[in-house]
């Protein structure tokens, strides 16, 4: 299991504070508005459907969701967000890929550049690390919630998943982007609860870090993920779970 996966799992299990929940609302509202540009009906708009599911997962009020959709479809006035990819490097040469939504790209790049530089990293040129990642569906299931490996393998492979791995406390499932929804739906039908599910950029190789560079990398990830405009942050670091846990504590 990659250090990034462990980082995501630990952060997911950590109790969310009100401020963190507020940040989650902000990011999801942006995503809903942008997704709704391609149509306000989630039944025929998979990106919007996923964004609404994410909103429900953090108990966002239905009125907030409705307003975000109406802003996206132009029924209400709202900010115009631009989708931008930022690529760069962290401590030890770790590759970092950031998906952002912003209404002021000059402000965003300036703030992200500052976050990178003060934590031992730097923003690079477009395309500098994209080749190290592959777009895939990614699903995590806690073993506490579902322990039957053979049954789980049968469910996801029948739905055309690419791979399933045993990562100690969790199962990790990988799909093509096109089959992601089918696999998630198959799990839902069999009442298998997921702790994380998204389509994102999965590293093809990893950089092992420990000690000071590892702590710098984790601090960089936390600050990038906390930035209001950074929707998703992907990186190819591999850091031992004990070191990630001690940083979180």
Query: Cα distance, first to last residue?
Result: 21 Å
Give the domain tally.
Answer: 3
Proportion of β residues? Answer: 15-25%
Note the total helix count: 9
CATH 2nd-level architecture of the largest domain: 2-Layer Sandwich
Low-confidence stretches: none
Q: Which bin fits the share of residues in helices?
A: 40-55%
Annotated CATH topology of the largest domain:
Alpha-Beta Plaits
CATH superfamily of the largest domain: YebC, transcriptional regulation domain
Largest sheet: 4 strands, antiparallel
Order of helices and strands: HHHHEEHEEHEEHEEHEEH
Class based on secondary structure composition and strand pairing: alpha+beta
CATH class of the largest domain: Alpha Beta
How many β strands by DSSP? 10
What is this entry, summarized?
The chain is an alpha+beta fold and 249 residues long. The chain is built from nine helices and ten strands.
Helices and strands in order:
Elements: H1 3-13, H2 18-35, H3 46-57, H4 62-73, E1 82-89, E2 95-102, H5 105-118, E3 122-123, E4 133-142, H6 149-158, E5 163-166, E6 170-175, H7 180-189, E7 196-203, E8 207-208, H8 211-226, E9 230-235, E10 237-238, H9 241-248
Parallel strand pairs: 8-10
Antiparallel strand pairs: 1-2, 1-3, 2-9, 4-6, 4-7, 5-6
